[in-house]
Specification:
Blueprint: H1 2-16, H2 25-31, H3 36-47, H4 51-69, H5 74-80, H6 86-97, H7 101-104, E1 134-138, E2 141-151, H8 154-171, H9 173-181, E3 185-193, E4 197-206, E5 217-221, E6 224-230, H10 236-253, E7 263-268, E8 276-280
Antiparallel strand pairs: 1-6, 2-4, 2-5, 3-4, 3-7, 6-8, 7-8
Helix pairs in contact: 4-6
């Protein structure tokens, strides 16, 4: 429940400071005594947007209303909503609405304007099976695989991650790693994150110290407790739904706190086993 209240508060703060240059993921994280990576992760799980995407969409949506009601020069409006140049504003506006700021002021293009209103966190009652987390104490282990840096914007990073998975599967070397390090499944891991980039790894987990790595990297994960949830499917949407339920259903009823990073996606080699998503217990 704490995470849900935090994001509800963040959404309110964004509306109050929408055009302020001081409105950043860092300033919001500081206000809620958390780190930027965790705040970004929770915000995206609950809203399906990064903080930067959400702020940008709100500003550009409001910009269209201002343009239609205000005869001020486009540059003045751009500066008012947080853009430093006419060119940067026009480019972002056209990418969002599909038309230029100048066209937005014409009656013929009024129906092309895209509205993006403020989001609110709401609770709903659904008859769904309970979400059961399996807590396990795991010894120190290693992630061995390929690590890439991707944008935090989901529209950009999902295609990159999907392409990298396909590329590694075509190579066939991931299963060689499984054999070499006695691993029983493949792993996707979300690592450190800042406001512009996320580290994501594709590989395996092993308790054997890695050696003679040529094309891959290794990261040590210290001994700790993890909470593991079954996922009914392998698509990103399947994992997103479980993340959402962890925050809105499991955590409020649990006596535990979790970190959102590192997050592990586990894909077992055995067909009868379901994929899992793991979060570190704090």
């Amino acid at each position: 429940m704490e995470h849900v209240r935090m994001i509800s508060g963040v959404l309110t703060n964004i509306e109050e400071l929408l055009y302020s240059r001081e409105l950043t993921p860092e300033s919001l994280a500081k206000q809620y005594y958390t780190n930027v990576a965790d705040l970004q992760k929770v915000f995206q799980i609950l809203t399906n947007f990064t903080i930067g995407e959400y702020i940008r969409n709100r500003r550009l949506s409001n910009a269209s209303i201002i343009l239609q009601k205000n005869d001020a020069p486009i540059l003045d409006i751009a500066l008012e909503i947080g853009y430093e140049t006419h060119e940067a504003f026009s480019k972002a506006f056209k990418r969002f609405h599909g038309i230029s700021p100048k066209e937005a002021r014409t009656e013929t293009c009024a129906d092309k304007i895209k509205y993006f209103g403020p989001l609110h966190i709401k609770f709903s009652v659904e008859n769904s099976p309970p979400l059961v987390g399996k807590i396990e104490q795991c010894p120190a282990m290693y992630f061995v695989g390929k690590i890439i840096v991707v944008p935090t914007d989901s529209l950009e990073y999902l295609p990159i991650i999907e392409h990298t998975w396909k590329q590694e599967m075509r190579r066939g070397t991931l299963y060689d790693l499984c054999d070499q390090y006695h691993s029983d499944g493949l792993t996707g891991i979300s690592l450190s994150e800042d406001k512009e980039a996320l580290q994501y790894g594709i590989g395996i987990l092993t308790h054997l110290p890695p050696e003679q790595l040529h094309m891959y990297e290794a990261i040590k994960l210290e001994a700790r407790r993890w909470v593991k949830f079954s996922v009914n499917g392998i698509e990103d949407e399947d994992f997103r739904l479980v993340r959402n339920r962890v925050l809105t259903e499991w955590l409020p009823m649990s006596n535990h706190s979790i970190s959102m990073l590192p997050e592990i996606e586990y894909y077992p080699n055995m067909d009868e086993q379901s994929p899992e998503i793991w979060f570190p217990i704090l």
